[in-house]
Amino acid sequence: MTVGDEEGKVEEAPDSWEILSQQTREFVWNVHKEADSLIHARMQTFVTFEASLIGALFTIVILSKDPTQSWYFKAIVVLAGLLTCAAFLFLNRRIINGVIQLKQEYLLKSTVYRKFYGSAPPGYILPRYLPVLFAGLWVVLGFATLLPLPDAWRH
Known about the structure:
- By secondary structure, the protein is mostly helical.
- It has one domain.
- The chain is 71% helix and 4% strand.
- The chain contains 4 helices and 2 strands.
- A two-stranded antiparallel ribbon has the order 1-2.
- Helix 1 (22-63) runs antiparallel to helix 2, helix 1 (22-63) runs parallel beside helix 4 (125-146) and helix 2 runs antiparallel to helix 4.
- It is rod-shaped and about 75 Å long.
């Protein structure tokens, strides 16, 4: 992997962080910092939206008077929850892989960063698997709320 700075100079991934120029180190660190902040901001938005959808589903279940009409609303909320999980996975895959590669090829070669980060390889487990857990929750909620079909549909 090569990294360019603002002037367009390109440096190969070093064996040591310390042999990089100060400008390249700052560039690598700023890219990492911004991408990491973006991942966490997206994850906060995702969790907030999913919590809102779960609240909407429980509100529909509790307050529904007409079973046929509420079934449609419940189906829309469950589908929106599943689509949000898929979109989050798709949109974050590239940036998470880029940050992991940046850490492995540059940042973990810095002794200070490596000691701070620990010896475990970067994995970004929560942003990668949280949408999968929510998708599983939506499947369970979908079965629990949508399978009892309204009586009007059973003949």
